[in-house]
Structure formats: structure tokens, C-alpha cells
Specification:
26% helix; alpha+beta; 1 helix; two-stranded antiparallel sheet; 66 residues; 2 strands
Length: 66
């Protein structure tokens, strides 16, 4: 039975950051995902989601807007 080498702390941090980015991207249609990096390490993941209003329906044509 071969032993796998233990992952370094840096490898674990990288995997955790990648996992957080995947979670932030999941289901995001419009918006941004911002990573904050300090000393070469991701310390924060921000997700901003945007909602788009669809004015393309026929009953909205020629309206005055808001």
C-alpha cells in the first residue's frame, strides 16, 4: 500500500480558496466575484449578484419608463 504525501498548508489553502470560488460562481447569472489576496493568499471572496429587468415583452414597448 503506497502512502500519499501529505498536502502542504499552502496546498490546503489553495484548495479551500478554489472551493470558495466555485461556490460563489454556482448559480451566478449576472454579477461579479472578487478575490482579496494578501501576501499571496486568498483571504476573502466577495460575490455581487445583479438582477436584470426584462423590458422586451410586447406590452412594454413604447412606455415612458420609470
Amino acid at each position: 500500500m503506497a502512502l500519499e504525501p501529505k498536502a502542504s498548508a499552502a496546498d490546503r489553502k489553495t484548495e479551500l480558496a478554489i472551493d470558495q470560488v466555485r461556490k460563489a460562481l454556482k448559480g451566478l447569472r449576472y454579477g461579479t466575484v472578487t478575490l482579496v489576496v494578501q501576501d499571496g493568499v486568498v483571504i476573502q471572496v466577495d460575490r455581487t449578484s445583479k438582477s436584470r429587468i426584462d423590458y422586451s415583452t410586447p406590452d412594454m414597448a413604447g412606455g415612458e419608463g420609470i
